[in-house]
Amino acid sequence: MVTRQDCIKLDEQDVLAACRDKFTLPEGEIYLDGNSLGAMPSHVPARMQEVIAKEWAQGLIRSWNDANWIDLPQRVAAKVARLVGAGKHEVMVADSTSVNLYKALVAAVRMNPGRKVILTERGNFPTDLYIAQGVAEIFGLEIRYVESTAEAVLAGLDDSVGVVMLTHVNYRSGQIYPMAEITAKAHAVGALALWDLAHSAGAVEVDLNAAKADMAIGCGYKYLNGGPGAPAFVFVADRHHQQMRQPLSGWHGHVRPFEFVLNYEAAPGIESMQCGTPPLLSMLALESALEVFDGVEMLALRQKSVALTELFIKLVDEKLQAWDFGLASPRDAAVRGSQVSLTHAQGYAIVQALIARGITGDFRMPNILRFGFTPLYVGFADVYDTVQAIAEIMESQEWNQEKFLTKKAVT
Ligand SMILES: *Cc1c(COP(=O)(O)O)cnc(C)c1O
């Protein structure tokens, strides 16, 4: 049996333990929802204060030059690129994840004319499916939905497929799709591979170029801790920069935006993935937040993430036997992202009871209790305390109260 003392020892040996102090969390809170909204790096408010008082209030329009706002998307992109195995000229930070998906998917579809199918899995995140449906409607394409396994995706790839679009780490189960293998099969049948890194970037080792990925997108406010609604990123491999044409041909993607000419002419390279004026305050917050990754190796992050999720599963096996919990995430750590999902018929109320105790996870329909383990600020004793709390909530039937059973608007 794993004891709390064992977990405290693991915390003492943890090479990333000091990173916890870079974040501000409510006193006593165990935060296991960094996969929905990352915690706030403690230095960000002071930076934002400076941005608002100096760059906005005093610098005004001059800050585009004086504070280098004009280069901000590229600066932030360079930081993101390191975390996902991309060259810094292959990543742009702009817009939201959904909008970037739209731009990338249309660009990919246009690069593969004649192909009628967008391939994805039915368990993909809703916005990904909805955006694909919108693109399919405009271009008269068909979406092929396969079951949520790597085998089904590989089997679904044939020479009718123009683009395979997948979320690398499934948001519900935490299952990791084999990026290199699926991309290779896509290329073999003449398709492009587009990866959503929403649950990967900042948590799982990703090497887009080693996997020969064609395009990717990802989220700024989850494991990258960029703040609520932070801008997202988009990756397009160098080799496609000549041909790619994204549909939102706004002036920031123009080759010479400040010449104010009549006709659109796309900027060369990844610059053309921009559309309009970025949300500067949010992007400056994201830039500042990304400093917590300075000096952190993704391998060390992944190793701790695996150790945390392994410990959680072990403790669930040991302590929650008596109640009907199921494991909705892979047992094999090699194909599991930085989260563990459990199933239980009373999942919603159990999560609410946990939140009332200061332990925040989330609930996903129909019966998933989802726990995200952000290696930068979650420790091993936190994992112990979480499973212990679930055991107590079950033992005492604490979950079985009106206030926990009633669903809120955001779960
Ligand atoms: C969180 C998430 C998104 C978010 O998209 P927004 O445009 O930021 O709302 C998209 N895709 C996946 C897979 C996600 O997990």
Name some characteristics of this structure.
Aspartate Aminotransferase, domain 2; alpha/beta; 4-stranded antiparallel sheet; 411 residues; single chain; binds pyridoxal-5'-phosphate; Aspartate Aminotransferase, domain 1
Map the helices and strands.
Blueprint: H1 4-13, E1 23-24, E2 30-31, E3 40-41, H2 44-58, H3 63-66, H4 72-84, E4 91-94, H5 97-111, E5 117-121, H6 126-139, E6 142-146, H7 150-156, E7 161-167, H8 179-188, E8 192-196, E9 215-218, E10 232-236, H9 280-289, H10 298-319, E11 326-327, E12 339-343, H11 347-356, E13 359-360, E14 362-364, E15 368-372, H12 380-395, H13 402-405
Parallel strand pairs: 2-13, 5-6, 5-7, 7-8, 8-9
Antiparallel strand pairs: 1-3, 4-10, 9-10, 11-12, 12-15, 14-15
Helix pairs in contact: 1-12, 2-9, 4-9, 5-6, 10-12
The structure holds pyridoxal-5'-phosphate.
Pyridoxal-5'-phosphate (PLP) binds next to helix 5 and helix 6.
Q: What is the distance, rounded to the nearest whole angstrom, between the alpha carbons of the first and last residues? A: 33 Å
Count of runs of 4 or more consecutive helical residues: 13
Structural class: alpha/beta
| The CATH H-level homologous superfamily of the largest domain | Type I PLP-dependent aspartate aminotransferase-like (Major domain)
Order of helices and strands: HEEEHHHEHEHEHEHEEEHHEEHEEEHH
Outline the biggest β-sheet. 7 strands, mixed
CATH class of the largest domain: Alpha Beta
Overall outline: globular
| Weakly predicted, low-confidence segments | none
Helix content: 25-40%
Radius of gyration (Å): 22 Å
Hetero groups in this structure are: pyridoxal-5'-phosphate
